[in-house]
Amino acid sequence: MQGAAASGFGTDAAQVVAWQGTLPVLQYVISKLVKKRPDLASAGLFIEFDIPRRSKRIDAVIVNGSTVVVIEFKTSLGQLGRSAIWQAEDYALDLRDFHEGSAAKNVCAIVVAIHGSCKSNEAEGCSLPVHLCTADRLCEMLDDLLGSSAVEVDPSEWDSSRYEPTPSVITATQQLFSDHQVEDINRSSADNLEATLHQIQKIASESLQNRRHSICFVTGVPGSGKTLAGISAAQTKSEQVKAAYLSGNGPLVTVLREAVARDAASRHGGIGAARRYAETLIQNVHRFIDEYGIKNPTHVPPEKVVVFDEAQRAWHAVRMSRKRRMSLPSEPSLMLDIMGRHSEGCLVVALVGHGQEIHNGEAGLSEWGRAIQMSEIEWNVYASPEVLRDSQMDSSRRLFDDKSSCKTVSPLPELHLSTVIRSPRATRLSSWVDAVLEGRPDEAAELIGSLDGF
Predict the structure, then answer these.
(1) What CA–CA distances, in Å, run from 339 to 209, 306, 371, 401?
(2) Least packed by Cβ within 10 Å: which of 14, 122, 128, 165?
(3) CA atoms in the 13 A half-sphere facing the CB of 47
(4) pTM, full prediction
(5) Contact 102, 95 (CB under 8 A)
C-alpha cells in the first residue's frame, strides 16, 4: 500500500462506506461462483485496481484465461445510466489499449447496482461489451462471461503488467496528428520555432541511432511557442519510437488534450477516439514519475523521447519526500534515472520558461545540473545559451553552478525561442519585466518605449 499512499490514494470516510457496500457483495458472489465453478479458484480478483499511468481506479477486475472483466459498482438502479456505462467502458478501453497484460484478451465490463433487482442486459452503442445487472444476478453473469479457458494466467504477472500502448493506438495517434505541423504557423510570427523543432528532431535521431542518452534544454519567453514545440517534438513518425509530452500543470494537461483532440476531430471525425489518443500524447509528469520512480523503480517506460514542460518548476527532494511520504530524490534525478534505463538511448527535452518559477518546492534549473553531474549515465547535454549565462540570472536559473561544469555542454542558439507568437507586440515585454524586477532601471527605461499598448 506504500506506493498507493504515495500516489495520493486515501481511505477517507466516503471510501470506507463504499467498501462496506461492495466488499460483502463480492465476497458472497465469489464464494458462490467458486462453489459452482471450482476451475475459477485460480482466477485473479483485483480490488481498487490502479490502471498504470491513467490516474483511474477500478472497483474490481477479474482475470481468467483470455478474459478480463471490469466491475463497477453503483448504489442503486437509478445510477445505471449513461454516465456509469461510459465510466465502465472507459476503464475497459484503458485496459485493452494501455495495459500490457490485457492487450490480447477479451475485455468487457459490468455495471452492478448493489440494491434493487432487474433483468440483466447489455448496453448499446459501446466500443466493447458493457453489461448491466444487479447484485443478485452478478454471479450468473460472471459464470457466463468467464467461460472455461485452456489459457493459463498468472494473476501476479497480470497485476504487474506495465503501461504499454498497443500498436493500433500508436498508429491511430500518428494518423490523427500527421498533418498538425509547426510549419502551419505564420512564419513571420514563429521566428525560429521551425529551426528549434528541427534541431530537437536531429538530436533525437542521432541519439537513438548512436544509442546515446541525451537531454536538451529549450528556453523561451512566455508565449514564444515552447508548448507548441514540445507537443510537435512528441509527435514521432515511427511506431518503434514512442514519445510523450509531460507536464505537472493539471489544468494545462486537460486544456491541451481537449484542444488537440478537437483539432484532430475537426479533420478526421470521432471526438471520443481523438480524446483517448490525445491522452497518449499529453500526460501528467507526476503520474509518470510515480509509476517508474516509486511503484516500479526497475521498469523501463515505453517512451524513448519525453518532453518535460516547465522543467524549472520540477520538485526538489524535500518537496518530493513530503508529498510522497517517503525519502526520495528530486524530480530531475528521478527523471534521469527513469530514462537512463533505456539501453538503446533516449532523449529528454526540458522546456524552460524564463521567470516562471512561482511556487515553493520548485528546484530550478540548478537541480537539473546537479542531477546530470550525479547520474551514473553519461548524458549528452544540448542547451540554449540562456541557461548557461552568468549575468542576469541567479543560481536557480542557471543549469550549472560553476563554469567548469559547462565543458560537456553543446550550446545551441536554435534552442532559444525569442519571439512572442502569442502577441507579437509583446516581444520585449518579458525583458522589461526582468529589468524592473532585477533593478536595472536604465535598461527598463529604454525598453518601455517599445511596449506601446501595454
Answers:
(1) 16, 9, 13, 24
(2) 14
(3) 11
(4) 0.77
(5) yes
| Grid cell listed for 349 | 527535452
